[in-house]
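Customer escalation, tier 2.

The customer says the design service returned an amino acid string that "doesn't look like it belongs to this structure." They asked us to rerun it and document both sides in this ticket. The original structure tokens are below, unchanged.
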């Protein structure tokens, strides 16, 4: 408790420049006598705490005592402040406290020019309880029991050894060793319907996790599309500039390698007939069949 108060005192002096004993006592919620004892402890520990007498005086640290004496460059300081400020959403209270400390240590303000919001427009993010449970299990190397809804095998109970949280393509995943599958798998957090942390440690001999891979599985195919100019915004949202070329009539030619599967048919049908598939021919046939199935489900002839 006292160590935290001493650090807070040092941060306050570095940020404010100079404070009276009464101001420090109010900030730390202690007596003035305790403030003087804390300042003495900081001085004994080697921190250059000094007192200035007279009007406008108070307690402070000697000028020049900042992290400028370390190997942290100005660019690295800026990056740290930007990262903490940008990812404030992850834990607002902790992030704000850390920003307060970094501002004091670096003697520079935070320019609030960037914000990273990981939430999606229409789909809820995993709740803090789920995220924190998974995070705690990763750090403690404890197994989890999860009720998981898979796109291929339905909902089932899995026992896993979580090793990493990954944010990829608008979604959070946990990379974990699945005891049933005897291999590493990626589990999307929004599909985890229930989670229970166990006291069981990871089994011995667990090898390192492979490179993270998430997304549709299937044989890669070359997909060539013609998309009207009116949907150019969507094309540039979803494809790289090197995969798109504009035609003389303003339409866009898209050429990309993607894994085949039902997901691809659903994706192409989301353009509501505006997209023209040039390659491969079997994709056009599959789209036609899927469109008929949609009509049948709507009982429209």
């Amino acid at each position: 408790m006292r160590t935290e108060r001493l650090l807070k005192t040092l941060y306050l002096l570095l940020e404010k420049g100079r404070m009276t004993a009464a101001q420090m006592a109010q900030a730390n919620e202690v007596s003035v006598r305790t403030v003087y004892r804390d300042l003495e402890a900081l001085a004994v520990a080697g921190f250059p705490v000094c007192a200035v007498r007279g009007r406008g005086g108070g307690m402070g640290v000697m000028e020049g005592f900042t992290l400028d004496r370390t190997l942290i460059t100005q660019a690295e300081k800026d990056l740290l402040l930007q990262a903490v400020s940008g990812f404030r959403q992850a834990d607002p209270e902790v992030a704000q406290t850390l920003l307060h400390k970094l501002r004091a240590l670096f003697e520079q303000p935070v320019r609030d020019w960037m914000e990273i919001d990981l939430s999606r427009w229409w789909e809820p993010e995993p709740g803090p309880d789920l995220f924190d449970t998974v995070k705690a299990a990763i750090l403690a190397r404890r197994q989890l029991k999860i009720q998981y809804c898979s796109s291929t095998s339905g909902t089932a109970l899995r026992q896993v050894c979580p090793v990493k949280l990954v944010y990829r393509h608008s979604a959070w995943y946990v990379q974990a060793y699945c005891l049933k599958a005897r291999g590493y798998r990626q589990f999307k957090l929004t599909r985890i319907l229930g989670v229970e942390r166990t006291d069981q440690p990871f089994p011995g001999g667990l090898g390192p996790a492979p490179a993270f891979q998430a997304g549709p599985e299937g044989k890669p195919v070359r997909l060539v599309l013609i998309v009207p100019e009116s949907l150019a915004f969507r094309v540039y949202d979803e494809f790289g500039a090197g995969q798109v070329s504009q035609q003389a009539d303003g339409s866009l030619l898209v050429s990309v390698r993607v894994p085949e599967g039902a997901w691809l048919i659903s994706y192409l049908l989301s353009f509501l007939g505006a997209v023209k598939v040039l390659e491969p021919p079997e994709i056009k046939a599959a789209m036609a069949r899927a469109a008929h199935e949609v009509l049948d489900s709507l009982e429209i002839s």
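Tier 2 assessment: The sequence is consistent with the input. Residues 2-65 form a domain with the Arc Repressor Mutant, subunit A fold (CATH 1.10.10.10). The CA atoms of residues 243 and 255 lie 5 Å apart. Sent an explanation to the customer and offered a walkthrough call.
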